[in-house]
Write the structure tokens for this entry.
Amino acid sequence: MRGNQANRLAAGGLVDRSEEISFRFDGKTFFGFKGDTLASALVANGVRLVGRSFKYHRPRGILTAGSEEPNALVELRSGARREPNTKATTAELYEGLDAASQNRWPSLNFDVMAVNQLFAPIFVAGFYYKTFMWPAKFWEAIYEPAIRRAAGLGRAAGLPDPDHYDKAWAHCDVVIAGSGPAGLAAALAAGRGGARVILCEEDFVLGGRLLADGGTIDGLPAAEWVARAVAELTAMPDVRIMTRTTLFGVYDGGTYGAIERVNDHLPVPPEHQVRQRLWRIVAKRCVVAAGSIERPIVFAGNDTPGVMMASAMRSYINRYAATPSRRIALFTNNEDGWRTAETAIAAGLQVAAVIDARPDVSPAHRSLASKGGFPVLHGSVNGVDGGKNGVRKISVSLTGGARAEVEADGLAVSGGWNPAVGLTSYHRGRPKWRDDIAAFVPDGAPPGMIAAGAANGAFGLGACLREGFEAGAAAARDAGRSGSTGSMPVANDEAFSLMPVWHVAGKGKAFVDQQHDVTASDVELAQREGFQSVEHLKRYTTLGMATDQGKTSNVAGLAIMAAVSGKSIPETGTTIYRPPYVPVAIGAFAGHHRDENFHATRLTPSHHWAAEQGAIFVDTGLWKRAQWYPRAGEKDWLESVTREVKAVRGGVGFCDVSTLGKIDVHGPDAGAFLDRVYINAFSSLAVGKARYGLMLREDGIVYDDGTTSRLAEDHYFLTTTTAKAGLVMQHLEFCRQVLFPELDVQLTSVSDQWAQFSIAGPKARDLLKEIVDPAEDLSNEGFPFMGARAVKLRGGLKARLFRISFSGEMAFEISVPARYGEAMARNLMIAGKPFGVTPYGTEALGVMRIEKGHVAGPELNGTTTAADLGLGKMMSTKKDFIGRVMAGREALVAPNRQVVVGIKPTDKARRLRSGAHIVPKGETPGPDNDQGYVTSVCFSPVLDQWIGLGLVERGRERIGEIVQAHDPLRGEDYDVELCNSVFYDPDGGRQRG
Amino acid sequence: MKYSIFSLARAALSGHKNWKPTWRDAAPKDRYDVVIIGGGGHGLATAWFLASEFGIRNVAVLEKGWIGSGNAGRNTTIIRSNYGLPGNTGFYELSMKLWERMEQDLNYNAMVSQRGVINLYHSDAQRDAYARRGNTMRINGIDAELLDQAALKKMMPFLNFDHARFPVQGGLLQRRGGTARHDAVVWGYAHAASELGVDIIQNCEVTGFTRDANGKVTGVETSRGKIGAGKVGMAVAGSSSRVAAMAGLRLPIESHVLQAFVSEAIKPLLPNVMTFGAGHFYVSQSDKGGLVFGGDIDGYNSYAQRGNLPVVEDVCEGGMALIPMIGRVRLLRQWGGIMDMSMDGTPIIDKSPVDGLYINAGWCYGGFKATPGSGLVFAHLLARDESHKEAALFRLDRFQRGAMIDEKGQGAQPNLH
Amino acid sequence: MRIVCPFCGERELGEFTYLGDAKPQRPAADAGEDAVYDYVYLRDNIAGVMSEHWYHGGGCRAWLKVTRNTLTHEISAVEPAAGAGAAKVGA
Amino acid sequence: MADFSWDVRSPLDRALVAGAYGAQGDAGVSLTEIRNFDLVQVMARRGKAGEMAKAAKARFGIAAPETRKAVGTSDATLIWSGPDQFLVLSKGGKHGIDALAPVFTGSASLSDQSHARVLISVSGEKARAMLAKVSSIDLHPDVFGVGAAAATSMDHTSVTLWRNNDRDGQAVFNLLVFGTFAESLWHTILDSAAEYGVTISHSEELA
């Protein structure tokens, strides 16, 4: 063996001595074994000082052996994988593990910040609320940075997380949290009963407290019984055992959150594998067998390294064969604590003394004491003499007032046990107090959840098995599984007697919340200052708000609060329990959805063709759309876009507009239906015709627009804007299913069925003739403006053709089945060659719609009415429609509303910017003369200047007025003219031509 | 008693044995000039302004549980005045100015931290909308800057610029925005109001209103008996509909759950408050070191003060998409508050149709930053029976008149605001 | 939260979209502005059992009437909207 | 006269790379895209569910599914897609929209979805483990047996999922996803399957 693990017992434990593992702590190399946690390996190497406390930077050691650990927090791993505040007590040891202590400078051993202890008299609870107020400016400059630097224990990596995460769903009849005696018994009963079972264990081995405390079950040694139980469960096809998995939360409808640390026990996850996986487990029933947490007793110096929970000491000795101390004193107020004395003696360690707060102890323990040759002192520990290197001496106040001192290098403490009431309390159920065990037990658990065993306050081994087994059997029955559950495992119940001791008066700081440095006197101070509700206590002292969420401190804290305020503990009550039960990496909640996979990506049918053309793409919603198609030699986007616009206006161009929402509206009442959802009439639309339609919300504000065509008596083809496609479908289904169920109409989204292209420009018809079957009549007479019909293409392909124009040119939109979309783009290029056809992107599309004064997203902003947009005349007065009544409210028809108007700088060379505000010329801009703003702008190749649309007070009445564009953000002020919003071909001759 | 480093040092000498309660835990009297329902930030601030600005000191604040137990103690502590519509812009700036002098006003350190609030944009359309909003702010004398990507890279190099689904293009920055310690705001107003004689009555739940023959509200019935009042103001965001119903009123409000999250405490990582423009995520780091973050409401009516997993995932996805370095930072605690979601996303501060009853409601998830401003304008309304000029548009009848103040343009669909 | 869609069976929350209180009925065309204002803007905002409109957009696209307790999120009944599955009407 | 061709391209034309992907060794998941099919959405008109059912029975010789099922004939698969509606999946135009239109005149509204969807067949011993990462529904054999169908979502995208007859002792899940989402969802599926090892192929045959 390479390492000298001085505190490792020669034999025993569940570590694999054949696999020696080297690891580093604060740069020093140590060795441990497979099966160790970082904490147990440190214990085996005699390392006691592992961290510095939050506020006073006091030396801290290892207090527990589980996820409740408040002190032994380290930065695990390095570089981009550094994980701050990692509990050494749950970190599984692996070859090359690298950990560093936190919150100290320059070193753990010599921490200058320990000077804070000198200011301890001032650094009491809430001191910062009373000072740092003068002068005001100093807060951000001096006080706060200092406080922020001091606060927080570990350092985050500060680099992107290189590991992967994913999320998955699991379904079962019964999910079980914890694999101790109660959990295993529950799994056996439920599994035998035929239930689908998921057993979650946060540890990397099954067994829970049995691993440390052993015992005899069904006449077998605990370890053997566990092995058999696991074997039986593993053989059941519908039982899934998940180790390294913590059930952290319960949500509505029997949904449970669990985190699986898939590869945290390796230096880095293997290729193609994730670091952690988030599980959403859907279960009909849940058995909480999460056990209980041993609680400390608050006394002076209770945070000295070497002071450890009695049960944790047993874990280290029995499970890990590592000895935290050589000469151990035990301070207990209950029977269970004595097991640590038994364990120590069995392991050949010295027991210095047992300090028992109770008046008398059992004969068995008396004889143990005499055999072990140690005294039993009746009283309480009220002080610890020691330092960063551990405990030296313990002072005891004996019942009756005398004092005693005990020489020891370790102190095991047992203040009784607190059932883990987290999961059962996450739906705001408040745990109830039980005097016999002086602890809170689950009450008001979420539907379908039941606690069993120690988690339910049943501390005897026999009782744990019984409760677990019965809960498992009941859960299976409730889930409708009727199989036989076989025989219940049996064991004896140990005696349990406890005399509550929460706080022992003494000299020096006595810590309630060790991680947040909250002392007993802080709790008393809070009470004195009126923070008497437990929630106030928590918020004022930060008790229980550290990374352990107060698992070892909350109950003691409110017990002390109860004492000083003269209330009982149940009267004082608990704070609200909140998930997650253990902290969960943010990356795990995100799973696969990060970086480019944050959201799905939608691609148009011609996407890959456009990419080949070198198109620049823009994100619109989930879509990637071609924004423009740069050509060699073009110096910027504006040059490319201007070329595209000129090509369309002067010849012909095409653009993939498949992103528009497309909906088939079928049925005899289709027309009547559309009359109710649009402000204008559609039942009167002739077959073979298209019409522009405008939809309002029920509150009278414009919702969406688009052209809708009538392809048959009982078949309309409706289009929506790209942005609103999904929402309009939902809205129409609401109208169909909820508002107007009497109408015979059917809706189907065909957005993905059709690839749709706009073909625009004076040569559009010439190009189209090359594409469609020569038999099709495309003449202005045969297929006039706003015509819509099915056509056959050369080669027989069926398509839909619409004579509609967004650009203001003679234009068509043609739809082909989506898998022909790419072919259509290629064919348009081939057929269009003689006409100089030019593909154009969304920028050119935008330029041409602004030149034509068509409104779009920036104008349909959820606050504009049809009249604001200049479309008020479309509102039918002959029919009811969604939004009709509310649209008439006084403020929505007020004369001074901001309405759409054209805007152009008086200086033709001037660039116009969206977001600039409009104020009367010559006036100083202020809240009272802020009359509107520029909504959309473009450089118009036709007018050879920047133009735009805006929403301006009484804008349409002020055509020709010169006003001021005010843009303080960009430091610009300039004159603009309000003008007609249709800049190009106002009488529309070109699109009809 | 006066708080300062000196009183603190003095107290230290006597082992802090002489501190008095931060506020008097009062028992109800028979009658008050003004009774305020709700011992949250807004209610306590209203009481303090009534006493300090308007000289009305015979005031009681009634709290069902412990003060600050509602949204005042559950929010993500952000303060800002970056609103774009008339009515909001001026009001939130009034509030911001009051934040800037709060410690001195109250002699209590609420840790007001003007570290800057930045709203990130990811598209030209978003940039234009922010430009419009930022210009509105500047026109109203509020600080605002439009940053481009280069400036952002300098300021926040840790954002995801290289592998983003929706690349960050820039942001609208308000440097005066930031955070404050939410509980301390509650305690500070309680402390200062109590010093001026206001009665703060905890564990006192209002169960009904007493009315005279003309229907005028003359007081409240509570779990601690009848209490007479010249005027009654309600500041119970989250429960507004329930309290209003006791007076026979229906409000344009729905109660929704908004979740919030805090991570384990870590050393300083994030310098300011940032809001993702392409997903539901905003975050700041508390002085204690935890990342305090949130996103969108769960989306369904709820009084449960807890939410569900889809939103937790959605928010963390947003966080990872924007700041990939937080992947290994652990989420420590999730909780939920009840939001008064109004029909246009804007609050209501007005007389109610019931004589003697005044409403302060509909804060959606923007209530915390409004705390001081809300206190001042509500106190003004209660004291003078007319709206403060910066709250003149927060009228209850604006929906009937069609004068909504809809920043998001979502209309009468509360869960979209 | 899990909703038992009458057509699809039990599904998780993420498949559904919430609209709100299902009690207000759209007034008749001639009901007048006050009635429509009430329908569009005023809510009982019940703390307790409430009938709500949910849309199963992530599934069968049916609009549902869900009876749910806003204090506990417990769902006691789910039924299709009048027009969902209307092909069975009178058939 | 320009001459050009109308070649068909699947939305997965570029994303799908036939062969092995992810972890080495025996592939736990096999993904096959099935190309070039006819898919018609049939939606009963108000009060006409009975007539639609009769028409379907007459046409296909089997009852169209009225609950979450997929039923097959020699040349078509009828997949439940919601209340009063089902999809007809077939090849070669025999049950394409033009062929079916007269069959359902007056009883149902038809909408061609042949190009709106991409059909992916998922099998392999790790198929369920992989699907559990993208699907929230329970695919346990006792719950989602052969012939079960679901209208559900994957990665926030609507999909139609049904279970085919087993192939060499293993469950086969068919997935109809929207074409414009297909490439994106395909990559998500590959990422989810990578740890199990994947074999990728495409086929013209309906499984």
About this structure: The mean pLDDT of chain B is 97. Residues 262 and 292 of chain B are 4 Å apart (CA to CA).
